[in-house]
Amino acid sequence: MKFIVSWSLPQATYQGSTERFLKTGGMPPAGVNLIGRWHGMSGKGFAVVETSDPKALYAWFAEWTEFLPIETTPCLEDADAGAVMAALKK
Fold first, then answer.
1. DSSP assignment of the chain, as one string?
2. Chain segment 49-74, per-residue pLDDT in tens
3. d(Cα 33, Cα 43) in Å, to the nearest integer?
4. C-alpha neighbours within 13 Å on the C-beta side of residue 43
């Protein structure tokens, strides 16, 4: 399943989170495939990941919660969302 992971970077934790990101690359653990990650100039960013292991996804978040408020949302691609919408119209 795919997930949208979004975060914001508070000024108070900017230095610590930057140091960790530069040291580790911020990559997710085994079992979580990073499809892409984008960083906005506003201090907000998001990633799209794919996993069937919610514990691995949770472990990734747990590594960053001291620095970043993180939200995750399961998501569908257009074709799957369209199929659901079409089924509702029947």
1. -EEEEEEE--GGGHHHHHHHHHHHTTPPPTTEEEEEEEE-TTSEEEEEEEES-HHHHHHHHHHHTTT--EEEEEE--HHHHHHHHHHHT-
2. 999 999 999 999 999 999 999 999 99
3. 23
4. 12
Residue identified by tokens 């911020």 is 26
Does the reported pTM lie above 0.85? yes
Give strand pairing partners of 71.
6
Burial of 21 (0-12, 13-18, 19+ CB in 10 A): middle
- For 59, half-sphere exposure in the C-beta direction (CA atoms, 13 angstrom radius) is 11
CATH number of 2-88: 3.30.70
Q: Which of 85, 81, 59, 55 is nearest to 70 (CA)?
A: 59
Residues 6+ apart with CB under 8 A from 69: 7, 8, 10
